[in-house]
């Protein structure tokens, strides 16, 4: 059997991620590879750190990109911050809260679940009750923007409750970073991870991560070694540190980091507030058009993510066939439902570079024609 | 502070990796991103699996690329195959054997060390003794090609001993894959991981991995959950399986996988034996030239890796200054010594696309001029 080069088609990516990639990011990606200890590359990593601090709105010195996808960023938070036997309050309102529970348990921690319906945000009242009932809890973990449902939770309120009970917070900002306000310092969040392939419109494979001084202090006071060598952030810190000699930890994914640098330069040039506004504008255009088609949203408008629109599949419509037609005829990808919403909903992403009127227009017209 | 786009220089990469990247691989890298569940992408992953089977010379159905660098590939082997309390014989003849020990201990296993001098291969006699002294050992772990010293160990002989004592093998083939013979099936190796950025001349960030049926059986018989969610290969298997519905695990690093596919197509077209020969030829050219300059090798010719040449820094020469001149004047990167060889040796890589006469000529002339 002969296998030749792979030439992918040009798709319009309006699923839950990867999102449409900025052309400039793809250009940056294919620039010449340099050594991961090259002084010029180390300079780029220092810039990348500053750009990530801007995106996260934080001054945290520990702000890096994990050399692996968002799920590894999630795991980096749990393996570093949870010690065996520790109690963690985990809020679940979709798929990713459940993955957090898995993480806690695999670290030997005890997960106390706060349950919310799919499509609802995390209820701070329930978090408060869990904190009162579990005075020995050390951490509160929750998803800021649930990619499986499109619901936005009040990260500021949950973090405030956690602090009142002397708990750290682990926050999944995979889908929120760059798409909706995420103010790590103002809200005093402790460990926040994201993904490169959502509202940053970079290629998938990297996980931006920031730890507060409180989080770093907890890591430094650990009684046991972090169970993962690859994700042990006390080792990684020496690698990202701009000061003095860079210690070798692993070989950085050089070209992917070029791409993330470029995506963040684009974000910085646009400005966070303009990016948030662009996501809101695109969402409104999409919403108005979908409502005209009689399509209903899963999440109430009050806490709906502009960048991830979960909508119910109209009665009598064949889920798979519609998505296949969109893909094959229009080169347009929208997302299937996940978990409890599998087969019941579509997820239409307007993330990063995808949040543009031309994408909304294509999506609305293609859906209208396909649903006829 | 204003940060603009990053434009790296065109370096010639002759360190321990990343190696010079094939231009075709950089082109493939920047092709349009498609969704990670796109049927065309799934088709590409199936091809990638076959290409990896060729590179590893195996029929193992479990042959994939971990979505993270080689150190994560190493960890994937240990967290899946080692259960708490299990004894693992770890051969150490450089930096990476030591990292294996770290991995065993972080999995709750007990590492029995087989010590060999830096620059020497693993001595099968010592492995045999360790196996006899530890009849309860379950696994033998060793590095096929030590990147820190450039020594090649006899993987076939060590694996045979392991089998005689009913042990599985975990083999670090980060630097060997594509550069020297590595016959996974013929040698009956059980868990073998590599890196994309060495002799495959792909961008860094992925770790090719293959598990034998025996390794898969051990994973299936585990008493405890794998401590890493991200690296739990029983979950990842559903993701890479070509049969039926692909289950979502994490978002694949789509563009990096395009690049790996292309690098493997190039390897397949060249043919493994030709690639091995090209590495040997380039090594001989480099060796003859270095010997004329009076530079000595760390590793004896009998088990010297053609693709990774560790040489002693000549008496009275300033390590850092020479490497800096090579980089700044010639855009040429060679590697520093690591661990016990830091400050004492250089590591000159002839990996993948770097194993060419023009690279050897540049390196020899630039060294000659700089050392004058």
Automatic annotation (TrEMBL), chains A, B:
Domain of life: Bacteria
One Pfam family named in its UniProt record: Aminotran_5
Keyword Transferase in annotation: yes
Single GO term (MF): transaminase activity
Cofactor: pyridoxal 5'-phosphate
InterPro entries xrefs: Aminotrans_V_dom (IPR000192), Aminotrans_V_PyrdxlP_BS (IPR020578), PyrdxlP-dep_Trfase (IPR015424), PyrdxlP-dep_Trfase_major (IPR015421), PyrdxlP-dep_Trfase_small (IPR015422), SP_NH2Trfase/AEP_transaminase (IPR024169)
The keyword Transferase is assigned to this record: yes
Keywords, comma-separated and alphabetical: Aminotransferase, Pyridoxal phosphate, Transferase
Domain Aminotransferase class V per the UniProt entry, residue ranges: 33-339
Similarity-based family: Belongs to the class-V pyridoxal-phosphate-dependent aminotransferase family.
Protein's recorded name: Alanine--glyoxylate aminotransferase family protein
């Amino acid at each position: 059997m002969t296998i030749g080069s792979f030439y992918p088609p040009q798709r319009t990516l309006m699923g839950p991620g990867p999102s449409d990639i900025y052309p400039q990011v793809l250009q940056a990606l294919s620039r010449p590879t340099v050594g991961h200890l090259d002084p010029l590359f180390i300079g780029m990593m220092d810039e990348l750190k500053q750009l990530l601090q801007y995106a996260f709105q934080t001054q945290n010195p520990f702000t890096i990109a994990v050399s692996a996808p968002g799920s590894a960023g999630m795991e980096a938070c749990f393996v570093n911050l949870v010690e065996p036997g520790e109690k963690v309050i985990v809020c679940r309102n979709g798929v990713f809260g459940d993955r957090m529970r898995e993480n806690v348990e695999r670290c030997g921690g005890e997960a106390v679940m706060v349950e919310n319906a799919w499509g609802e945000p995390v209820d701070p009242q329930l978090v408060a009750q869990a904190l009162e009932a579990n005075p020995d809890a050390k951490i509160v973990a929750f998803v800021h923007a649930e990619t499986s449902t499109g619901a936005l939770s009040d990260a500021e309120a949950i973090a405030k409750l956690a602090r009142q009970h002397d708990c750290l917070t682990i926050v999944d900002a995979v889908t929120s970073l760059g798409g909706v306000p995420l103010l790590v310092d103002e809200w005093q969040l402790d460990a926040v991870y994201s993904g490169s392939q959502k509202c940053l419109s970079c290629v998938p494979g990297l996980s931006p991560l920031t730890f507060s001084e409180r989080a770093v202090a907890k890591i430094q006071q650990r009684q046991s070694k972090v169970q993962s060598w690859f994700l042990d952030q006390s080792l990684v810190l020496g690698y990202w540190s701009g000061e003095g000699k860079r210690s070798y930890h692993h070989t950085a994914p050089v070209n992917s980091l070029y791409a993330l640098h470029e995506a963040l330069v684009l974000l910085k040039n646009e400005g966070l507030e303009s990016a948030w506004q662009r996501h809101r504008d695109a969402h409104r255009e999409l919403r108005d058009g979908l409502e005209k088609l009689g399509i209903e949203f899963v999440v109430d408008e009050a806490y709906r993510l502009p960048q991830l629109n979960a909508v119910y599949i109209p009665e009598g419509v064949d889920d798979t066939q519609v998505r296949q037609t969109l893909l094959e005829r229009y080169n347009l990808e929208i997302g299937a439902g996940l978990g409890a919403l599998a087969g019941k909903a579509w997820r239409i992403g307007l993330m990063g570079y995808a949040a543009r009127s031309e994408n909304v227009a294509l999506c609305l017209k293609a859906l209208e024609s396909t649903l006829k």
